[in-house]
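Milestone M4 deliverable, item 7.
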Amino acid sequence: MNIPETVIYALMVGAVSTAGAAFGSWLSSRATIRATRHALEGINRQIEFQRLAKVAEFRQAWINDLRESMATLQSIGVTPNLHQQVQTEFYRAGTKIELLMNRGDIRYKELQDCMYAFLAAETIEEKYLCNTPFVSVCQDILKTEWEVLKKDLNAASPGTST
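Output delivered:
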């Protein structure tokens, strides 16, 4: 049986067209997979950014609360002749600082010693002597925590890898 040349050409064109369509479909699906993967990576980066930003927000609120409590304790601590209501606020501030602080912090004991020195001070001169060491350790703690916060914020910035 002799097949006309035009039929052979038609079959060859059909086969090449089918192969081309299959190859084009394969390329298109690979591009779609790549685009989907890229979009998913972007979504994951955004989720991580939002998580780190929220942690940083909570950390900033904690630092602000700690700073406020430290300032309250210090201001009451140097006040002579405290009334009972003010003494209660002094104890409350000290307890709040202890609860906000991590006992594993290397300055925790020093901070606690400074707070209890205020408590033990009986004269105004003794109270004033407690002031500088307390403020110093508070500044060190707050500065360190601020540096941690800045590091967290930098890690959360879009375009940085985490």
